[in-house]
């Protein structure tokens, strides 16, 4: 028992040390995260202190300690798009936009309009304090820019096997979670000249396989409203993709390393009536670089959720500086979720919103 307690204390110490250390590059333009889901996007992009389902494996593994029963998610397709997409592409373009040459041709007719599409799925098995799942994601952001006469492309295709465990201490007041994942990543982050005649995933991408780890903690006071403080270290020690060359393309280059990031947040959960509960949360991303950040709103997320009898959920919030809202219908067997949110795609000195929508259907047992 003493060795087990020392192990748990050691993990807690590692989390605390990581929160005050670890370099991270400050970025302009959009911040691309490994995972963002429809619930968190409806709540302003905040999740660190409130996640309580299978997505804990992808966000904060300490959330596995909040699970009350086992759940098998058989299918949960989630699709997201930008409101600009319909202004850029017509029905006749549908056969073109799925390859990079066709997408560039389409966006060249509507220059300076941002394009966003994302599809992801996460079949999984979770139970209190443990979970395993397979995450697949395809994400494509692009724009034909008139000022520089180029084609900006940010493309990511991930496949990840994820395994996580949560340690509960002091009757759940302290939850410490650890997640490991094996990831195959194909990515493109380039400004491609319009003069380049042929662009494909094969000739533009970098691919590689790597192993990553996340460590999270949630501290919950055993008093009314359950005030909680939470933190999560993502890609602890940085994640590289040089373990293997990759599963799909024989590329000569490997994806960029994913730098370690640390998010911190808090939440309160008042009970409004016998069948209505509420959660309020706020968080700051990449706290270790706060002193270097010029635009703190890029890192700030806040949201709330009303839960009506675990059947209907109403959400709202602020993602960076832009409003969000979302709804959910849920039973024991399915979830139907939708949200709209604004994403910051500008720079520190010139903010720019890209308004998006996201929807998800889940079948679970």
Which sequence of SSEs, written as H and E, runs from N to C? HHEEHHEEEEEHEEEEEEEEEE
Tell me how many strands there are: 17
Proportion of β residues? over 45%
| CATH H level, superfamily name | monomeric porin ompg
Main beta sheet, described? 17 strands, antiparallel
Tally of domains: 1
CATH topology: Porin
Q: In one word, what is the shape?
A: globular
Secondary structure tally, helices: 5
> Spans with pLDDT under 50 lasting ≥5 residues?
1-27
Mean pLDDT: 92
What is the CATH architecture term? Beta Barrel
Specify the CATH class.
Answer: Mainly Beta
Q: What is the helical fraction, as a range of percent?
A: 10-25%
Radius of gyration: 21 Å
How far apart lie the N and C ends? 35 Å
What structural class do the secondary elements suggest? Answer: mainly beta
Task: Describe the fold and architecture.
This protein is mainly beta. Helix content is 11%, strand content 46%. It has a single domain, classed as Porin (Beta Barrel).
């Amino acid at each position: 028992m003493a060795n087990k307690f020392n192990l748990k204390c050691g993990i807690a110490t590692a989390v605390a040390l990581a929160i005050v250390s670890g370099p991270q590059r400050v970025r302009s333009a959009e911040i691309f995260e490994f995972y963002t889901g429809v619930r968190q996007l409806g709540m302003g992009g905040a999740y660190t202190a409130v996640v309580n389902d299978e997505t804990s494996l992808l966000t904060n593994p300490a959330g596995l300690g909040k699970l009350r029963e086992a759940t098998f998610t058989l299918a949960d397709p989630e699709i997201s798009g930008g409101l600009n997409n319909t202004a850029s592409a017509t029905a006749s373009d549908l056969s073109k936009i799925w390859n990079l040459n066709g997408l560039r041709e389409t966006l060249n007719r509507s220059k300076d309009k941002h394009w966003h599409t994302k599809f992801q799925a996460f079949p999984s098995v979770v139970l209190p304090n443990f979970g395993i799942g397979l995450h697949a994601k395809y994400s494509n952001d692009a724009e034909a820019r008139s000022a520089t006469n180029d084609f900006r492309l940010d493309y990511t295709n991930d496949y990840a096997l994820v395994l996580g465990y949560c340690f509960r201490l002091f009757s759940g007041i302290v939850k410490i979670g650890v997640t490991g994942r094996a990831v195959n990543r194909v990515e493109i982050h380039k400004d491609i000249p319009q003069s380049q005649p042929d662009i494909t995933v094969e000739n533009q991408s970098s691919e590689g396989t790597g192993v990553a780890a996340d460590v999270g903690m949630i501290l919950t006071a055993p008093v009314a409203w359950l005030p909680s403080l939470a933190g999560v270290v993502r890609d602890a020690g940085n994640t590289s993709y040089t373990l293997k060359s990759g599963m799909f393309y024989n590329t000569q280059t490997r994806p960029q390393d994913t730098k370690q990031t640390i998010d911190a947040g808090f939440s309160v959960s008042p009970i409004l009536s016998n069948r209505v509960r509420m959660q309020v949360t706020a968080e700051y991303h990449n706290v270790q670089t706060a002193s270097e950040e010029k635009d703190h709103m890029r890192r700030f997320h806040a949201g709330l959720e009303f839960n009506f009898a675990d059947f209907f959920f109403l959400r709202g919030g602020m993602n960076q500086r832009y409003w969000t809202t979302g709804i959910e219908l849920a039973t024991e067997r399915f979830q139907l979720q939708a949200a709209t949110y604004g994403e910051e795609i500008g720079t520190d000195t010139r903010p720019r919103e890209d308004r998006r929508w996201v929807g998800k259907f889940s079948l679970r047992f």
